[in-house]
Write a structure and sequence with these properties.
The complex is a heterodimer.
Chain A lengths: L5 E5 L2 E3 L7 E4 L2 E4 L7 E3 L1 H16 L4 E8 L1 H11 L6 E6 L8 H13 L9 E6 L10 H8 L5 E10 L5 E7 L3 E7 L4 E5 L11 H17 L1 E2 L7 E7 L8 E3 L4 H13 L2
Parallel strand pairs in A: 1-6, 1-8, 6-7, 7-13, 8-12, 9-12
Antiparallel strand pairs in A: 2-5, 3-4, 9-10, 10-11
Chain B lengths: L2 E7 L9 H17 L2 E7 L4 H6 L6 E5 L9 H15 L3 E5 L2 H4 L2 H7 L3 E6 L1 E7 L2 E10 L4 E7 L4 E5 L16 E3 L9 E7 L14 E5 L14 H15 L2 E4 L1 H5 L26 E7 L5 H4 L5 E8 L13 E4 L2 H16 L1
Helix pairs in contact in B: 3-5, 6-9
The chains are: A alpha/beta, B alpha/beta.
Bound molecules: flavin-adenine dinucleotide.
């Protein structure tokens, strides 16, 4: 039991990456056209964090995983229908705005407050997990801010691996520049880990896990607190799609030799 | 009246500043001159003296922390060091490179200073909002799909600048006056034991390369002869990287195969992955091979200026306005010829 950890995973929901996105202006600031009806998925890097959390919890008996997610209740419910089938967790939903444009500092404040109030959470055993960047804002700041607010000063970003040892210490591999990993050893929890891809494949759907999760997910969604996110002086001057659509030259009738010569010239040209 | 602090840090040698730090210095100099603002540069290094002398020509006020705890990147010590530098400088605008080291601490730092942070900034301009001069920062949302220009009223405002968006500052080294800033260190619970990387000749990720080669899942799929040629694919790809000095990127489909026990290219990892859940590197040119050019992959090409692709599929995503040139051809054949030509040219 000495290595039982309490893992809180912060994960938002994001539009399915195969969808076309079109920015629009809404009364509360920038948004996406049809944002509420675009199919959504759990934020991919945060999803990796959730699977790593479940894996770590399974290997360390007595551990527990919470999934804290801020988003519109109806959309959270949709996404949970799939995610609940993957791994066991307790959902802590917060009903709030969707998308990448609200200010991360406000999001972090709400998340930290929610985590601090979790009943049964032992903050000394806490591993705060999430994605190192979201697929919406892509800022890589929310988790760090939550960690700071919770007083956690061992933080790791771009994590691909955690190795929890018998003495409670753990080794972490973080992505750094140039295709390398920085290796660190931390004496023990609490810590913040912003995950990159990690090493686990997406778990297969397991209907039994899904049923067990749904028993607590539905009541949690019903009770979800709602929140608004102040802008903190953040103003958008413009929000637009990139204009650059290339005129593609499609070359169908050259031999491999001819293509190779053309490419050699292209590679050599400044 | 704004005042600007640029935070910089030493590279692995411990003495020189990183290129990204020197780029942030250029951004600081430009912004200070546009705003008529004062400029301070803060240095985080075990021994900041050589770095300081390389900044003497900026004419900026120089602050530094020094000592062994700052030899290596670590949240607790870096956050404390940057906090001390910020408190000493009392700046309203803090610029820093979006290196792994500063990305790890920038938000926590902003929170400690009661400020706000925006990251992945690709350009900075001085504009005017409602007749008042305002700093405007450009960044991308939704993984490089939507570009926004934003501004903030509240200070201090921390801005992390993406690498490759400014030229690196280069001035003649000269003796420099550096103000040493004391740091109240927290208990250190994390020990950095070093870097793990593929052996020198096996490192396929080269951020400074002019050319990015992307390998897609087609390389390990059945080819027209009904067979998979993974070993040949691996040789061709490595041969090309060697001959062209290119960096290697991959589609998600190809790197994911490694986890599923399929025949796979052993030198590829998720660090090579480009796209939605991968990297968005900066290279002047990119050559995509055996990759379909789907949107979740192509968002990682946002900062690749000149793009070509080789695909068997005349309807692949690259042909739809995503690449400049697409060769409808067999990449096995083209890359074999290309490698031969490049080797001849070399010798
Ligand atoms: C949440 C999410 C996140 C994602 N993130 C990413 C990401 O970060 N990066 C990413 O890449 N994808 C990502 N994807 C997946 C993406 O949608 C595509 O599935 C993926 O990019 C396809 O990879 P591919 O083009 O290599 O493979 P395929 O789609 O299998 O295409 C292979 C191509 O190779 C061609 N080919 C085969 N043999 C040859 C030959 N001899 N010569 C020339 N061409 C040949 C084929 O014609 C085909 O076009 C993500 C998807 C989701 C849902």
């Amino acid at each position: 039991m000495s290595n039982a950890v309490h893992i809180v995973v912060c994960a938002g929901i994001v539009p399915d990456p195969l969808q076309t996105l079109e920015p629009i202006t809404t009364p509360t600031g920038p948004g996406l056209k049809n944002e509420m009806v675009l199919p959504a998925v759990l934020d991919p890097w945060a999803a990796c964090a959730l699977y790593e959390a479940a894996n770590l919890a399974a290997k360390n008996p007595g551990s527990k995983v919470w999934l804290v997610s801020l988003g519109p209740k109806a959309k959270l419910q949709q996404v949970m229908m799939t995610i609940a089938q993957k791994v066991s967790f307790e959902l802590v939903p917060i009903d709030g705005p969707i998308g990448g444009f609200p200010d991360a500092h406000s999001t972090a404040a709400v998340l930290a407050e929610t985590i601090a109030a979790l009943s049964g959470l032992d903050r000394e055993r806490l591993l705060l997990f999430g994605g190192w960047e979201s697929a919406t804002r892509g800022a890589g700041v929310t988790l760090q801010l939550v960690g700071e607010r919770l007083g956690i000063t061992d933080q790791f970003q771009g994590v691909d691996k955690i190795d929890l040892r018998d003495d409670g210490s753990f080794e972490v591999l973080e992505r750094v520049e140039g295709g390398k990993h920085q290796v660190s050893v931390c004496v023990g929890t609490p810590a913040v880990l912003g995950w990159a891809t990690g090493n686990l494949a997406e778990p297969r759907n397991n209907p039994q896990v899904g049923m067990a999760n749904m028993r607590t997910i539905m009541p949690a969604l019903q009770k979800a607190k709602s929140t608004t996110l102040p802008a903190n002086g953040l103003r958008y001057v413009s929000v637009s799609l990139p204009k650059q659509q290339r005129t593609t030259r499609v070359v169908k009738d050259l031999t491999p030799d001819q293509i190779a010569s053309e490419l050699v010239e292209w590679i050599g040209a400044e | 009246m704004e005042s600007i602090l640029v935070l910089t840090h030493a590279d692995e040698s411990g003495t020189a500043l990183t290129k990204a730090s020197l780029e942030a210095v250029t951004a600081g100099l430009e912004l200070a001159s546009q705003l008529g603002a004062s400029l301070t540069i803060g240095i985080v290094a075990a021994n900041p003296a050589p770095a300081a002398s390389s900044l003497a020509a900026t004419g900026a006020r120089l602050l530094a922390v020094s000592g062994e705890p700052f030899a290596q990147p670590r949240y607790a010590t870096d956050a404390a060091a940057c906090e001390a530098l910020c408190r000493a400088a009392q700046a309203t605008i803090v610029l820093a490179p979006a290196s792994a080291r500063f990305t790890r601490v920038a938000a926590g730092l902003a929170h400690r200073l009661g400020g706000f942070v925006d990251t992945h900034i690709t350009s900075l301009n001085v504009g005017s909002i409602g007749g008042t001069e305002a700093i405007e920062a450009t960044r991308w949302f939704y993984r490089q799909r939507v570009e926004a220009v934003l501004s903030r009223d509240l200070r201090p405002w921390f801005l992390l600048l993406d690498a490759g968006t400014h030229t690196a500052f280069a001035g003649d080294p000269a003796p420099a006056q550096v103000e040493e800033v004391a740091v109240q260190l927290p208990p250190i619970r994390t020990t950095v034991s070093g870097l793990r990387e593929p052996k020198q000749d096996q490192q396929t990720i080269r951020p400074d390369a002019k050319l990015l080669l992307v390998a897609g899942a087609g390389w390990t799929k059945k080819q027209p002869d009904g067979q998979i040629h993974a070993a040949e694919a691996g040789d061709l790809i490595l041969g090309f990287l060697h001959a062209a000095g290119a960096s290697l990127g991959s589609s998600k489909s190809l790197v994911d195969q490694g986890g599923e026990g399929n025949s796979v290219l052993p030198f590829l990892t998720h660090l090579n992955q480009i796209g939605q859940t991968g990297a968005t590197p900066r290279h002047a040119k990119g050559l995509s091979t055996c990759c379909h050019g789907e949107e979740p992959h192509v968002v990682g090409w946002r900062f690749i200026a000149d793009r070509r692709a080789i695909s068997l599929d005349p309807n692949c995503g690259w042909t739809r306005g995503k690449a400049d040139v697409v060769y409808i051809a067999d990449a096995f054949q083209v890359i074999a010829k290309l490698n031969a030509l490049l080797e001849v040219n070399k010798s």
